[in-house]
Amino acid sequence: MYQTTITEREAGQRFDKYLHRLLPGAGSSFLYKMLRKKNITLNGKKALGSEKTVAGDSVAIYFSDETLDKFMGAVGDTESPEFETGHKAERYTGKESDYMTAYHALSGIQVLYENDHILLADKPVGVLSQKAAKEDLSLNEWLIGYLLQNGAVTMADLVVYKPSVCNRLDRNTSGIVLCAKSLKGAQMLSELLKNRTLHKYYQLYVKGRISEEHLIEGFLIKDEKHNKVSVVPSNTNGAKQSKKSAREPQGSYIRTAYKPLKAEEDKTLLEIELFTGKTHQIRAHLASIGHPLLGDYKYGDRAWNDIYQKKYHIRSQLLHAYKVVFPQLEEPFEDISGKTFYAELPDVFHKISI
């Protein structure tokens, strides 16, 4: 027999999905059969699997130790920890070292805010938000290593819910990354991002002098082969239409607002608000109107970038996600309801200012 209690971190998901994570080696038909036979119970009662889990729920699994080993161990699945079942202590191998390696190896990451459900991290330039290749270390692994190091999660917790980043910044874009520590936190952040009710702001330097704020729109076309995008003008005149007309280009609709903060001799410090969040949106959109980002060799002005590279050693775009504003929220997120969080500008922004 195996018995456990649903934690706040795991609450809010369907019971059958929880069981799939807990017993990754078991198929759906087998799990539903065990539920019907009451070999798996929720709070001591027969369950359908469609119930929403609540913190404090008691889960009992009446399997032999051998069967539990088979389904919890998920033979061949290197992502899943192994269990010594029954009433024995749990045993885990493999992945913990990866998380701790990332935690110790990736320097410069700061925690701006943290509660039971979310974490706001300030990511420096050079750190991936998520892995691009199997051998990569990213903020995602760092997050779990950080939580393991501080006792906020255990390897056992990761079987049924794995904390993760909820939005991505390019490797060479710095600033605020939204992370979910619990399922409730992930659901809340996902909803805010989907509904665009969480406001994200960036600061960046662009070529040329800009004196007025403006809202620009367009369609972003991806070139997967070269990992590059292009922007064509929008025909929507300020609003995205539900159905594109025959005249509109194919691609993803993008909307970007910019406001000048400081105009200098050959460049302007801008604040950007993203209303849509697409790959390379800021970089490509500003370049398409003749104001490429400083340090951006993919979309920018190479000769201009070279001047700043030689003088200030700038090798990537100066783009920093410096502010997020949360809307009004209810429990259990009242502590961040209507709050604004900031990430300080990297030193290089101040060094090049005149």
Description:
This protein is an alpha+beta fold. 25% of the residues lie in helices and 25% in strands. It has ten helices and 15 strands. Strands 5, 6, 7, 8, 9, 10, 11, 12, 13, 14 and 15 form an eleven-stranded mixed beta sheet that branches. Strands 1-4-2-3 form a four-stranded antiparallel beta sheet. A hairpin with a 2-residue loop joins strand 2 (40-42) and strand 3. Helix 4 packs across helix 5 (139-149). The chain starts with a strand and ends with a helix. Residues 74-94 and 236-246 have low confidence and may be disordered.
Give the helix/strand layout.
Layout: E1 2-5, H1 15-22, H2 28-36, E2 40-42, E3 45-46, E4 58-61, H3 65-73, H4 95-105, E5 110-114, E6 118-123, H5 139-149, H6 157-160, E7 164-165, E8 174-180, H7 183-195, E9 199-207, E10 214-223, E11 228-233, E12 252-263, E13 267-274, H8 281-288, H9 302-312, E14 319-325, E15 340-342, H10 347-351
Parallel strand pairs: 8-14
Antiparallel strand pairs: 1-4, 2-3, 2-4, 5-6, 6-8, 7-8, 9-13, 9-14, 10-11, 10-12, 12-13, 14-15
Helix pairs in contact: 4-5
